[in-house]
Amino acid sequence: MHHAYLFTGPPGVGRRTLALRFAQAVLCEDPPTPGAFCRRCRSCRYLEAMLTRDEDVHPDVSLVRPRGRALGIQVDQVREVRQILARSPRMGRYRVAIFTDFDRATPAAANALLKTLEEPGDSALLLLTATSAETVLPTVASRCEQVLLRPMMIEDLARALVQRFPQEEDRAMHVAAWAAGRPGYALRLLRDADAYARHAAWLEDIPRLLQSPMWERFAYARQLVKGLSRSDLEKPLLVWAAFWRDALHLSMGHFLPLFHPERRALLESLARQIPAEQVYGVLQHLLDAVVRLHRYVNPRLLLEDVLLKWPRARALWLPTEQEAPVAGLGG
Ligand SMILES: [Zn+2]
Questions:
Q1: What b/e string do you get for 256-270 counting C-beta neighbours within 10 Å, with b at 16 or more?
Q2: What angle do CA 19, 291, 225 make, to 5 degrees?
Q3: Could you tell me the pLDDT band of residue 327, with boundaries at 50, 70 and 90?
């Protein structure tokens, strides 16, 4: 086992859950087999409470989250954890510190953690989560064992969701695709009506933005960043990236399952108007923006830059208007 792990992957893929389950396996007092956990011992019950109710109850597990909407993980949070890790564990062999969204650590906080990563001590275990290894300080990433979490196959996720929510089969299939195979995000869409409505609204904004002149797009960017934190802004970017990925597959004539099959008519009309290379450029630019978002770029400038890259569409088939294409604002 290593002393530090970095779990990376898109938000909602299960990074925090995996970190907590990993801690559960390491700290279990009565493991049924090596590397497994029993779910019944004192340590396991504390960790179940952390997982399901977000309660910080395990005496040997420190869970550090970004502080507030704008601030991120601060240097004093890292210093506090360093002091805790230096003490011997209360229950088992390890003291575990879990830093979620470490790509939102300030440079001072990331540097403060470096010393611990270099000399962690025998009983310290550090678990970090981030969107990708590129979004954290390279010296931090290189001192961690990296575990990349990929989204699940949509069909596998849909099957697992239907098993868990048999009475909501249609919605389960639908959110598995919307979440692009990210189980945590799919569960949120199923359980949280607001999250579902926000996702739907970001999708509905796409055809409108594509037909809007730049000044309208900039007004939209100003409005959107006003209501969202830096890490929240990642969510619409990922929703849009999934949409553009669908457009790319259609424009290249691939027959792969779409993330947004309910928007096929819109996607097809887009694929007919915009060359595949340009669609690819938009998608790549969006994915770059997700990485740049974590480098303290001004969120509004970033969003304006994203929308500048989007082509102007002439007329688009909208999912609600099956009869005739909606007239665009000109091109
Ligand atoms: Zn246990």
A1: eebbbeebebbbebb
A2: 100
A3: very low
What are the residues whose beta carbons fall under 8 Å from the beta carbon of 298, sequence distance 6 or more? Answer: none
* CATH class given for the domain over 193-331: mainly alpha
97 Cα: distance to centroid of ligand 1 (angstroms): 18
- In one-letter notation, the amino acid at residue 183 is P
Separation of CA 308 and ligand 1 centre (Å): 53
**Count of CB atoms situated within 10 Å of the CB of 199:** 21
First to last CA, the chain: 58
Ligand 1 center to 60 CA (angstroms): 14
Question: Could you tell me where the DSSP H helices lie in 62-131?
Answer: 68-71, 75-86, 107-118
Distance 122 CA to ligand 1 centre (A): 21
Q: Which CATH architecture has domain 4-148?
A: 3-Layer(aba) Sandwich (3.40)
| Distance from the alpha carbon of residue 47 to the mean position of ligand 1, in angstroms | 9
Q: Listing from the earlier edge strand, what are the strands of the sheet with 124-130?
A: 61-64, 95-99, 124-130, 4-8, 145-148
CA of 63 to the centre of ligand 1 (A): 19
- Supply the pTM of this predicted model: 0.76
By CB neighbour count within 10 A (0-12 exposed, 13-18 middle, 19+ buried), where does 168 fall?
middle
State how far the Cα of 311 lies from the Cα of 206, in Å rounded to an integer.
Answer: 11
Contact 177, 261 (CB under 8 A): yes
Determine which helix (DSSP H) or strand (DSSP E) holds 97, and give its type and residue range: strand 95-99
pLDDT tens digit sequence for 4-29 = 999 999 889 999 999 999 999 999 99
**CB neighbour class for 223 (10 Å; exposed up to 12, middle 13-18, buried from 19):** exposed
- Taking the centre of ligand 1 as the mean of its atom positions, its distance from the CA of residue 198, in whole angstroms, is 38
* Nearest residue to 47 via CA among 105, 104, 94: 94
> Residue 274: enclosing H or E segment and its boundaries?
none
